[in-house]
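Hi support team,

I'm opening this ticket because the web form for multi-chain structure prediction keeps timing out on my end. I have pasted the exact lines I submitted so you can reproduce it. The total is 676 residues across two entries, so I didn't expect it to be a heavy job. Is there a limit I'm missing, or should I split the entries? Thanks in advance, R.K.
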Amino acid sequence: MTNATSPDTYKRLLEVKGLQTYFKTDAGIVKAVDGISFTLNKGETLGIVGESGSGKSVTNLSIMRLIPSPPGKIVGGEVLFEGKDILKLSEGELRHLRGNDISMIFQDPMTSLNPFLRISTQMIETIRLHQSMSRREALAKSIEMLKLVGIPAAEERIHSYPHQFSGGMRQRVMIGMALSCEAKILIADEPTTALDVTIQAQILELIQELSKKLDTAVILITHDLGVVAGMCDTVCVMYAGKIVEKAKTDDLYANPSHPYTYGLIQSVPRLDKAHDGKLFSIEGQPPNVIDLPPCCPFHPRCHKAMDICRTQYPPTKDLGNGHEVSCWLFIDEKEHSHE
Amino acid sequence: MSKTTEKRPLLEVKDLKQHFPIESGFIMKRQIGAVRAVDGISFTVNEGETLGIVGESGCGKSTTVRSIAQLYKPTSGSVIFDGIDLVNAPREQMLDARKNIQMIFQDPYASLDPRMTVRTIIAEPLEIYRTRGMLDASVTRDVIEKRVEELMERVGLNRAFKNRYPHEFSGGQRQRIGIARALALNPKIILADEPVSALDVSIQSQILNLLHDLQKELGLTYVFIAHDLAVIEYISTRVAVMYLGKIMELSRSSDLYKNPLHPYTKALLSAAPIPDPVIERKRQRIILTGDVPSPNKERFGCYFYDRCPYKMEKCKTNIPPMKRMDEHHEVACWLYE
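Hello R.K., no limit was hit. The queue was backed up. Here is the completed structure from your submission:
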């Protein structure tokens, strides 16, 4: 899981810099993603955690340039894939990139496959779109992928329709499809949320194993802190369109610095710990991201809020070892006057 | 959670079966089989405790509570609530007893009528029982109005919002509305069908705390369904693990987590992720192969046979009975014979 490679082989595969995606609605401008930056290294698994509406999915749709426009628009920032800015590519170049270089698994395995087409048709289409192969070769490749993701009797099952598979099996098909073009980055958007725990364990194991085998970098979007703990090397915690904390997984859990991260980790009931009395809970609701004032969006729910939190968004502070946090608690007076 | 000394069984479920017919034919319908959603389960729930039911989708957890609430007519078996057999009782008597059984549903978006105001939603159980003439004569419109306000405050909603519609609330607030509605008739037992699984993590803990407080204050009994083991462990006094319509293991929640006996319980526990990377990395997972089989066919062996890592010859042809291991721990597995 932890990639103990030396720094020079650790190549930056994807760099997101100051990405901003806004949606125009009747009620105002929704700043779904507002200036986030992160890097994804080769073979790394990056987790993006946050609650619904925090902008995790929009981040990844923006990376793939799949934001419906209008109403959505990527208004700023850069997404560098191996040094090329994805946001400046033409439609044709994008088509080449999607699937070939970056591919995606969606949350709901029930709705992301076409119910009218056989699995074989869908997989062959995907493969032939991206690689020059004959139908027969593509079919062979599809069967090989299904075997890889652990579908029994793949030769026969490939001609089934999606409804003939169970949820877990469909998610396997999706993963097989996503990996069939040997993408360098796999974006998994809540890949196990719709599945049961025992099937979730199977699917996560599979993603982990395949990413190691094919040296694929993974961006895993989830709301489940347990899943992140087991899967990811690095974690970004998002709140109201911003990354509030970013750290190596072990650091984040051992030493959660942002009050939101701390609250999240504390508020999950844990199997391995004795409990008495009440759970820690973050009071209040996540904010509406329409026309947010320039303050820390978490301040109404924060148990450590100070005056400055209500008027200014905190700068990002590096706590060392790649642990970054955006919170006024970590900014001392001197630095602040510098800003 | 409940430290009451007296332990009176409030609800007793005996050999409950709930089969749904599968029909074929266009005009001449005939039954060609049955979905055995719940296939013979028995348990008791004591006053003031929380019984957690945990299992994967399709294992019959929701059907169980719906059968208890008499939303379905059980195929066989009995549900005895407070001394009354709900399945066979005359309708009047059943309705009267059911006043004390209320439900909280999973989806806070689907379980509230979008065209009703919060006031009407919360008052509806009261109104229904008033029209049936099953409430005290003293319960007038004004009393109901006051009760609604009181309930809203109790679950943490501002009473000023009572004329608003569900769409004006967030998921967590909607679930609070659902809880207020369930409390309206002062029930003895609340059947909570995955009340927190559709909510965000930070909201989930708020609702769990609320349910916990309500239980303490009002002396409620819960039957709490969830697929999240950590949630079940947190809220329950005792836990029933279900698989394919059968109870596999029934035990006090602390024992179940410390000392799971059934291979399925072990697998479930090991599959549940723990939010700690250090522990996660060291854990040995028992990964079950395959999916939950279809509940359509009648089984003559252990229901978990197909996926069990310890299956024996005996398991194929004999259904293991519930075996009592100690005072609070029962398991249905031939390994413990």
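A quick check on our side: The radius of gyration of chain A is 21 Å. Let us know if the file doesn't open in your viewer.
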